[in-house]
């Protein structure tokens, strides 16, 4: 028998980073122009952070600013156009280069990009336009083609071989010393990280922000440097602010009649904590913007952050005062309409979240009595904590009643104190606040589905939001751009969209089908809409009619893809629209949900129903008509102009056999590449062979129509 080896097994190296972290950092290093020999150093430096929650993108922004690539950038594509664009991006001014990378290859908005770099959102837009202009000149193409070219470049980036492995980044424990980081045989120092902060009212996030270090320093020297470093803000001041926050939270516990845990979960508290974390972030990130401020300017920045955080920890009704110092700080010399708008928006999200907390607390089970029995007691006969809770609910702008159908207490925004508080607001917002729906909102104002909500509950909320949207639009001082005058209108549009998607198409939280068929309560709710003459012409009616007819035509069976559908809502109120792309892959001919849409709604008698569809879906139907060799349907999608021939002439010029020669089996993606006016926009269609078709569409009374296409397929007709 073979003798067992007496050698001790070799200790496995400790991998410092997850494989996906390394891949993400390596890919970004390539996109930023670092060559093969420069990649390991750049990636190691960025990943060498003490905080587990690294922001690799933010780290690379700072690293690249002080350590630009020196050698030639890597080859990223076999296509000359992709490689030329990649190299052109590297030649941009650093800020423009970063903005192109962030907003083209990551799901990062202009507002988030502004926070990453430390400039205004307006400046982001200016810099991006200049970058696109420069890229167009350097690649000898039209500026409006740059976004499409960036799409192809993004696909090329994703195919670049990534060679760095976990074994390249290991830690070896040595006796009497801390673990050292090894990357390609070189040691790199630890990099400090900053906290994530959240600012209220749609302000930006400040994300992890490492301090660029000299790569030849040892870890010990780096620690000594940090000890000697003078912070932008004295740590004692941050400690005092945090203690003030704790004191304010303790006061809020008493003011609201909630537990400390319940108060900590309120969005206003989460936001305030995030704002004060920003002070610690400023100390760690050493951003030139702050370090270059005068003492007076820096003090003003710090005070704004502290005051906004601490002032927001207060009972909800206090925010209905349009003269609140916090609003004057944000909106100096603004009129009553504007301050009332901000007050309404701030109060709304706070009150909606607090209403849910109060309702859950009021319906909590007690050993001595159930909720239904408590409804019969005089308040003087209730236990002390229940009596106090009811007083606090009314005191803070709410009322309640017992719903015997649901066997639970129902808490509502309203009551005597609420009525008194809204009297100081502009009459427009008094009316809006008296017509609020009941929503379950998260910290960012996103909708949460409640299991107790029926389709009719959704409908009631939608109708109230619809009334408020139209009322705010009609009363807005600036009819040309309502978003400049009403932030509450903007949030109402978004909340309507989210709630309507649940009502009309379903979602992971709120399915509208059961056992393969439309739920009966959903069907009955839709039929109530269609039977209500007062709703005809409204977005709710038009889309319910569209969906109901389609499903009725298919025996109300579940159609695959229906849960991902979206509709064009309030096109005359929204002066721009966010499009997220329709589908990752689209096979032709269309099947399932969109196939049934094509079958039912491209007939002459039903085409007017297509006006509720977004431009991407019209583009899909247009391409499907080519695949189906249906010249009559194809013709119906063209913009009606004097140059368009008659249908008979078109069918003579474009017989079905010509359409049959066009290769049209699969599209990788269909998305709108424009955030400008809704009236005219560009739809990008990424073909399976990697080429791009761009369709310019215009909005008419009958919905979106095709104006022309980049392949000039039918231009001569």
Report on this structure.
The N and C termini lie far apart (88 Å). It is built from 29 helices and 15 strands. Helix 6 packs across helix 7 and helix 10 (235-256) packs antiparallel against helix 12. Among the domains are: 14-172, no CATH class; 235-314, no CATH class; 466-570, no CATH class; 586-709, Nuclear Transport Factor 2, Chain: A, CATH 3.10.450. It is globular and about 85 Å long. By secondary structure, it is of the alpha+beta class.
Helix content: 40-55%
> Which percent range describes the beta-strand content?
5-15%
Q: How would the global form be characterised?
A: globular
Record the strand order, biggest sheet.
11-12-13-14-15
Mean pLDDT: 78
How many β strands by DSSP? 15
Largest sheet: 5 strands, antiparallel
- Distance N terminus to C terminus? 88 Å
Q: Which residues sit in consecutive blocks of at least 5 with pLDDT less than 50?
A: 1-12, 172-228, 578-583
How would you summarize this macromolecular structure in one to three sentences?
With 717 residues, this protein is of the alpha+beta class. It is built from 29 helices and 15 strands.
Topology, element by element:
Blueprint: E1 14-15, H1 19-31, H2 39-47, H3 56-66, H4 80-90, H5 94-105, H6 110-117, H7 121-139, H8 146-159, E2 169-172, E3 180-183, E4 186-187, E5 197-198, E6 205-206, H9 219-228, H10 235-256, H11 260-264, H12 267-285, H13 288-291, H14 295-311, H15 325-330, H16 336-362, H17 371-374, H18 384-395, E7 398-403, E8 408-413, H19 416-421, H20 427-433, H21 455-475, H22 487-504, E9 513-514, E10 517-518, H23 520-531, H24 539-552, E11 586-587, H25 592-601, H26 615-627, H27 631-636, H28 647-653, H29 656-660, E12 666-672, E13 680-687, E14 692-700, E15 703-709
Antiparallel strand pairs: 1-2, 2-3, 3-4, 5-6, 7-8, 9-10, 11-12, 12-13, 13-14, 14-15
